[in-house]
Amino acid sequence: SNREWYMGQALIYLTPTGEASATADTATYYPASYRGQIAGMLKAALPDISAPHLRETILQYLEVIQNI
Question: Which domain holds residue 27?
């Protein structure tokens, strides 16, 4: 059922800096940030990426993240 499927789900509120939602009064969610969690995850993955185009794309995305 849909209810069982949703039991294993989590709502992630993604913002540039990880600030809390101003409108999610009762919703359970996890704040995350591009500059923190997403950038950290991508930087950690870089040594394992051998495809040059993908590596360059991730480096460019990291640069964009730092400027938002």
Answer: 2-66
